[in-house]
Specification:
This protein has 426 residues and is mainly alpha-helical. Helix content is 41%, strand content 5%. Among the domains are: 37 residues, no CATH class; 176 residues, Rossmann fold, CATH 3.40.50.10310; 82 residues, no CATH class. The protein has a five-stranded parallel beta sheet, with helices on both faces.
Length: 426
């Protein structure tokens, strides 16, 4: 029996470049790249051989499969499409790695290919592949947000999902605006401070958050990476300050640029600074009731529920439309765990007003504001300190404030006791 016709098989993405390939883009798209693009609804597939031919990269053929010839006289299985009167054999399902993926009927366009080859996941790269990236035109983005209760209707990972969404959006904007640049997305770090504590919340000491990010950023800086950004979806004041302190320490210690810009954005979001831009993006002004509701929003309310309806609607509980408003005065907000006291359900604001279109409009504005900061930081026109939250300037939110107060108190007490001892002896 003749062997089946030979088909060239695609190479995997090269993780071990040869010396002459260092600093160059990988030659072909790998299986993970195809899966990532398919998940985003960008089809690829049968046209890939043409893509490889246009890029003039030779493809190494795999040896054809060898099938044992049937024994003489052995009956042949009828074809799946047998002639009239014959019995059609059931068609075998293609193996998972050969089966056609959904909506993979065309080659990605130029921008999609550039994004695939320029956007990397840190955990998927080998050391040689990471080392081959040009340091001066590569940005590493970290995402650091805690697991925290967000009412009865939202998952614990709201802040992490939001932070990752920002990181992905910033990465895509950088690649589209700066041809030849690369962005590496680090795995999400589920850690944070100043969170509402209940079942499922994982909160850490502020110093631990700061030191972990200092170590993470230091490892990247020692590897030669000059541009490091931190994305975050958590608005706890101490958490924001910990990210900003870590960025300042790494930047000063290694003479690199490490910046956390989400604190500045979070303050602008809830302080009302961006409200006119939100209205322009929505195409209508907010009503007086909506403005008041937005001023009362803080946690798992109108905005965060809208964001989750936009990016992960499958994780939003069905009862969000029936949740009553949860209003808290500024005095009550100073009490630890205030949304969970006196029968509170762990949210602040008006989740029943949530609308994915509202989230889309606000995200567009926030991304424009974020990119203004990112461009300035990458070009050296703005200092990373421009992206800090106002909490950074408040001493009692700083990581070392309370230890310093305790130390000063201990020294003062020791000095007082030392002064009293001679008088007692006389």
């Amino acid at each position: 029996m003749d062997s089946p016709p030979h088909r060239d098989q695609g190479n995997q993405l090269r993780h071990h470049p040869s010396p002459r390939q260092r600093g160059r883009l990988p030659a072909l798209l790998g299986a993970r790249d195809l899966d990532r693009l398919a998940a985003r609804g960008c089809p690829v597939g049968a046209g890939l051989p043409d893509l490889a031919a246009r890029r003039r990269h030779p493809r190494v053929p795999l040896p054809p499969r060898h099938r044992t010839a049937p024994r003489p006289g052995a009956p042949r299985h009828p074809r799946a499409h047998a002639a009239p009167g014959g019995v059609a054999a059931p068609r075998r399902a293609a193996p998972a790695h050969r089966g056609a993926r959904p909506r993979q009927e065309r080659v990605p366009d130029r921008d999609e290919r550039i994004e695939l080859l320029s956007l990397h996941l840190l955990e998927e790269l080998s050391s040689p592949a990471l080392d081959a990236l040009p340091r001066e035109s590569t940005v590493v983005i970290l995402t650091a947000s805690p697991l925290e209760t967000h009412g009865p209707h939202l998952p614990l990972g709201v802040d992490a999902y939001t932070g990752r969404y920002f990181a992905q959006a910033i990465a895509e904007r950088i690649i589209s605006e700066r041809p030849g640049w690369h962005v590496v997305l680090a795995p999400t770090l589920h850690l944070g401070a100043f969170a509402f504590e209940t079942v499922g919340t994982v909160t850490m000491r502020q110093r631990v958050v700061r030191d972990l990010l200092v170590d993470y950023g230091s490892a990247l800086a020692r590897a030669g990476f000059r541009h490091i950004l931190i994305s975050n979806g958590h608005g706890g004041p101490g958490h924001l300050v910990a990210l900003e302190e870590a960025s300042a320490i790494v930047s000063s210690r290694y003479r690199v640029t490490m910046a956390s810009v989400t604190g500045y954005l979070a303050w602008g979001l809830f302080s009302g600074r961006y409200t006119p831009k939100f209205e322009a993006a929505l195409g209508r002004p907010l009503t007086a009731e909506e403005r008041k509701a937005f001023s009362e929003d803080a946690h798992a309310g109108w905005w965060e529920t809208s964001v989750m309806l936009l990016i992960r609607p499958d994780l939003v509980g069905d009862g969000w439309r029936d949740l009553p408003p949860a209003r808290y005065s500024m005095g009550k907000r100073l009490i630890p765990n205030y949304p969970l006291r006196d029968g509170g359900q762990g949210y602040v604001g008006h989740p029943a007003l949530a609308d994915p279109e509202f989230a889309k409009a606000t995200m567009t504005v926030l991304m424009d504001e974020a990119m203004t900061l990112v461009r300035g930081v990458l070009d050296g026109h703005l200092k990373p300190s421009r992206g800090r939250s106002p909490f950074f300037a408040m001493p009692f939110f700083r990581t070392n404030f309370w230890p310093a107060v305790a130390g000063i108190g201990a020294l003062t007490l020791a000095w007082v006791l030392a002064k009293k001892k001679p008088q007692g002896g006389a």
